[in-house]
Design brief:
By secondary structure, the protein is an alpha+beta fold. It is built from four helices and six strands. The longest helix is centred in the N-terminal third of the chain and has 16 residues.
Length: about 140
């Protein structure tokens, strides 16, 4: 199963405070372990929400909201996408992760939907659209 591991933002990450050399090295070594184990598919850090935007939808209306955004603990500072056999394996890998922030921090692990989860709305035409998208992405 694929999961997204979200590194929750903190006041430090929202202030743009960069990791120490030691933390950056520890995260790099952890990423090497993930790649060597065939777990890590991708991952990156995100700049503070002050540099981001949100798109709010209400029917046909689209509203762009500039950052920074409130509720720092609900924001994301980085992510990984992992391929694991189950949630228990994801939790075990997360336990091995260096603390990604200088102070208290939190990871959130969320499984991805798979196409089988959409079986009730997946017509052959819709399946063909999604197959084309996956094919095009794989070719990049």
């Amino acid at each position: 199963m694929r999961v997204m591991v979200l590194v929750k933002a903190t006041a430090d990450s929202e202030a743009g405070i960069m990791p120490s050399v030691e933390l950056f090295e520890a995260m790099g070594r952890f990423n090497e372990e993930l790649v060597a184990a065939g777990i890590m598919l991708s991952g990156d850090g995100l700049k503070p929400s002050a540099e981001g935007k949100r798109m709010a939808f209400d029917g046909p209306t689209r509203t762009v909201v500039d950052g920074p955004f409130a509720e720092t603990r609900e924001l994301v500072a980085g992510y990984w996408i992992w391929e694991v056999k189950d949630m228990a394996e994801a939790v075990e890998w997360a336990r091995r992760c260096p603390n990604p922030m200088p102070g208290p921090s939190e990871l959130e692990i969320r499984p991805f939907y798979e196409m089988a989860d959409f079986a009730e709305v997946l017509t052959p035409d819709v399946a063909a659209i999604h197959d084309r998208v996956r094919h095009d992405l794989a070719g990049r």
